[in-house]
Amino acid sequence: MKRLMRLRSSQHLRDLCAETEFNRAQLIQPFFVVEGLAQEEPIPGLRGNVRHNVPSILRQIEKDLEDGVTHFLLFPVPSEKKESGFSHQSTQETISQIRKQFGKSLCLWIDTCLCSYTTHGHCAVLDEHGIKIEKTLDELAKSAVAFAEAGADGISPSDMMDGRVARIRAALDENGFNLVPVMSYSTKFASNFYGPFRNAADSAPQFGDRRHYQLDVRNRSDALASSVRCAEEGADLLMVKPGLTSLDLIRPIQERTGLQVGAYQVSGEYAGMSLLAEQGLIKFEEALVETWHVFKRAGAQYIITYGARYAKQLGIGR
Prior knowledge:
10-stranded mixed sheet, alpha/beta
């Protein structure tokens, strides 16, 4: 059943979905927590972002909250890679530590995919014939339930497997998490702009590429159909990725589904501004805010951006 109440269930979600203003609650800050990491590590190109262990992310979140960030998107990076049967204990512990220290002062979304867990770096369980779709969907559903049990506020599937939103929604509902929303990477292209992220998440494919499950940048109809599918399967929020190369799709997706649509300002887009600024060719802060306003102009309800932690000092309200 479609539950409209999911996106009304907390002040964080109500602010994220407020349609008549652009506020800091509509900016989501990604972060990476790496199991077993001795100390934080820089991420080339991603100004102001590092790979964290649990103590360092707790310090970072405390500072981010002071700087007005309220929505966070966790990318867990486990130390052990497997073919299937993945453990989520480390991620559950990270979620629990964040929840214990900060309570409900933040909204914590969890990226739900298999690419950082698998030995091959693909977003699915594979065999000699290719993707084992049912096994993959089972693993994604188990992940979502494990994250919700640990205290996640929302689940964000990024794998692009057919049917994954429906399977995750059913698993959450069956386990008593009917008010946990799903923010789907509903229109996600196979893109050249993910490089810094793949370094940070240790998720680069070890062979081939992801073009057989991520979208072809040449195909508008497929991009629209992908978001419509996620809406029909029970997603609460939709997303385009990469953001700047998908501006033309945001409003059409919203019009066709009736759901709010966000944009992911991906690592390559953000790093491009960072590297230009290092060469003195642009003013980083001004360029960052400019892109946010372009996303909003195109119809984005929310924006996932590695620069969300700068919004308060850059004058983005409330």
